[in-house]
Amino acid sequence: MGDVSGCANDEKLRQLVQSIRSGLLIPMKAQGGKTPTEITPSPRSGVEDSIEDLKSQNIEPISRSSQSQLRHSCLERDSNRCLATGQYSHNHAHPQNAITTHLKAAHIIPFTLGSFKASDSEAVDRHTTIWVNLRRYFPVLRSMSFTSEQINSEKNALMLDSQIHREFSQFRLIFEATGVAHQYRIKTFPDTTTGPIRDLPKNRLVKFRVHKGSWELPDPKLLEIHACIGNFLHMSGQAEIIDKVLRNFEDCGGLAPSGSTNIEDILAASSLSLLASNTNDIPDSQKSLEKQRPIEKQERLRAKFLDAENKPWGY
C-alpha cells in the first residue's frame, strides 16, 4: 500500500505493477522455461540501495548437484509418499498392493530463483532484483534469514506426485494453513488440471510429519508465501495473463533482435491499462482492444477498475 500511494501518477503506478510482474510473478511462475530477461525497474524510493546491499552479500548460486541428496532426504522424511495423495513412490520400498506413482521433490520457492551464473553481471543483477522484490513483499523471508542459497533445503521441499508437482509449481494447487500445526487444506483453482487431483483426500486435508530421520518439515511460512502468490495470481487474473506471456515467449523463441516483440502488447488485455482516467491516456494497443469489445462490456470494465482506488490489480 505504501508503494502504491508513493506513486505520483498513473504512469508510475503502471511501472510499479509491471516491476512486480516482471521481477517477481513471472520468474516465480516460469519454472525454468524461456522467460523475458528484462525486469522493469521499480519506481519506489530506495530500491537501488536495497539491490546494492543484497548484491554486496555475495550470494552464491545453487546447483543441481545437491538435488539427489535433497530427494533422498525428503523421501526418507515423507516415507516415500506423496504429501498430497499419500501414494507411494513406484521406485522405492512400499507395501504390497499399495497405489504407487512417480514422485518428484517439489521446491516451494522455485529452484530457478537460486540458479544463475555468478560470472554474468546481468544474471547477478536479475537475481538480486528478484530477491529484493521477494523480500520487500514477503518480509518474513528477512526475519527467517532465508536466501536463495537455502532453496535446496528440506524445509523448502516436499515430495509430490509428478503431475501434482506440476500443478503446485504453476500455483494451480496450494497448501493453506488450517490453524493446526503442519496441517493444511489443499486448494485448487478452475484452471487446475483435473486428472492429477482426483486422488486427493475428499476433505482436502493433509498432515505433515517426519516419518524417519531428523529432517525439517516443509516450512509453514514458505508454504504461506506460495499460497499467497497462488491466490493472488487467480484473484487478480494474472495467472492467465502470465501464462499467455510465457507461451508467446516460448513460441517465438525469445525476444526478436529487432525489438519487435512487445511484451507490453501481449499484456494489453490486463486491467492495468484501464487505470487511465480517459481514453486519451490509454495506450494505442489498449484502444484497439477496446474497439473490439461491446460498449456495455467496456463500460462495466471501466467502472470496475476506475472505482478501485489504490487497487492496481483490480480486485
**How many helical stretches?**
13
Give the DSSP E fraction (strand runs of 2 or more residues). 5-15%
User: Can you summarize the main beta sheet?
Assistant: 3 strands, antiparallel
Cα end-to-end separation = 14 Å
Shape: globular
**Which segments are poorly predicted (pLDDT under 50) over 5 or more consecutive residues?**
256-262, 265-295, 297-315
Please provide the ordered H/E string of secondary-structure elements. HHHHEEEHHEHEEHEHHHHH
Number of strands: 7
Q: Measured on Cα atoms, how large is the radius of gyration?
A: 21 Å
What do the pLDDT scores average to? 82
Indicate the structural class.
mainly alpha
Question: Major sheet: order of its strands?
Answer: 5-6-7
Helix content: 40-55%
Verbal overview:
- With 315 residues, the protein is mostly helical.
- 43% of the residues lie in helices and 9% in strands.
- The protein has 13 helices and 7 strands.
- The chain has helices at residues 2-5, 10-30, 47-55, 67-77, 121-137, 140-143, 162-169, 194-197, 220-236, 238-252, 263-266, 284-292, 295-306; strands spanning 88-89, 100-101, 103-107, 157-161, 173-177, 183-188, 205-207.
- The strands form 3 sheets. A 3-stranded antiparallel beta sheet has the order 5-6-7. The chain has a two-stranded parallel ribbon with strand order 1-2.
- The longest helix has 21 residues, at 10-30.
- It starts with a helix and ends in a 9-residue tail after the last helix.
- Mean pLDDT is 82; it is low at 256-262, 265-295 and 297-315.
